[in-house]
Design goal:
Blueprint (H helix, E strand, L loop, with lengths): L6 H24 L6 H14 L3 E2 L18 E4 L2 E3 L13 E10 L2 E10 L6 H19 L7 H14 L10 E3 L6 E5 L16 E4 L2 E3 L5 E3 L6 E3 L5 E3 L2 E6 L2 E4 L11
Antiparallel strand pairs: 1-4, 2-4, 3-11, 4-5, 6-7, 6-8, 8-13, 9-12, 10-11, 13-14
Helix pairs in contact: 1-2, 3-4
GO molecular function: initiator methionyl aminopeptidase activity
Enzyme class: hydrolase
Cofactor: Co(2+); Zn(2+); Mn(2+); Fe(2+)
Length: about 260
């Protein structure tokens, strides 16, 4: 299913996106050395509930997972990169943490992810990998405009990631989003320009470049959800939800001016 949102739905999407961004920034602020991943999950649940929103994850049970997911935020540490299930783990200095969050507010969903290093130790390799995903996301957003195709976005993202020297996994990538979290079209993190769905104003896309330092192969944890690099190398993941507008793309998952709930 591919949805094209109307003016009212786009306004609601902006509120949802700001909520997602505010929660992610607050969880980043609280992610200090010694903080448990289960506390991050609990704090996220509290903020979602206080905002009158609904989690897109807690009851999520797709065919590829061992669902339902049962938690409110994905917490991926070091070699974990996607669908990181919160568990009893205290963050250590230098851990590379990815927080991925999707919520629905007044019937419209938004999805975003951030990667950062916890504590005072800031390994240069980890920072470079995070920066590469951020730069790839910016390139993908710049390529998203009416009349362009999904392949144009994929090419822009993949060009940055390949230039930085990272292998690209093609199993998981970006996606359409709207009244539900995961919709068509699929947006791979590499591709050929001029191919795929033609972008139209009102289309929402969640773009999410992610990489693993030295492999494109994933392995799945015993929890049936958490995806890790097959070699144990570190990973990074950055994501925004954007709306295609008449003259380009608008990022919806930016923090609000106050950082408050919506």
């Amino acid at each position: 299913m591919i949805e094209i949102l109307n003016t009212d739905e786009l306004a609601r999407a902006k509120s949802t996106g700001a909520l997602v961004a505010d929660i992610l920034q607050e969880m980043k602020r609280r992610s200090a050395v010694g903080v448990n991943l289960l506390d991050i999950d609990r704090w996220t649940r509290e903020m979602i509930t206080e905002a009158g929103a609904q989690s897109c994850y807690v009851d999520y049970a797709p065919s590829f997972g061992n669902g339902p997911f049962g938690h409110y935020i994905c917490t991926a540490v070091n070699d974990a990169v996607l669908h990181g299930m919160p568990h009893d783990y205290a963050l250590a200095d230098g851990d590379l943490l990815t927080l991925d969050l999707a919520v629905s507010l007044r019937g419209i969903a938004a999805d975003a992810a951030i990667s950062f290093v916890v504590g005072e130790a800031q390994p240069a390799e980890s920072l470079a990998m995070i920066a590469a995903t951020e730069q790839a996301l910016a390139a993908g957003i710049a390529a998203a405009r009416p009349g362009a195709r999904v392949g144009d976005i994929s090419r822009a993202i993949g060009t940055v990631l390949k230039a930085a020297g990272y292998p690209i996994n093609m199993e998981f990538g970006g996606h359409g989003i709207g009244s539900t979290m995961h919709q068509d079209p699929h947006v791979a993190n590499a591709g050929r320009p001029g191919r795929g769905y033609v972008l139209r104003p009102g289309l929402l896309l969640a773009l999410e470049p992610w990489v693993m330092a030295d492999t494109d192969e994933l392995v799945t944890d015993a929890d049936g959800w958490t995806l890790r690099s097959a070699t144990g190398c570190r990973t990074a993941h950055t994501e925004h939800t954007i709306a295609i507008t008449a003259d380009g793309a608008e990022i919806l998952t930016l923090p609000s001016a106050t950082g408050g709930l919506h």
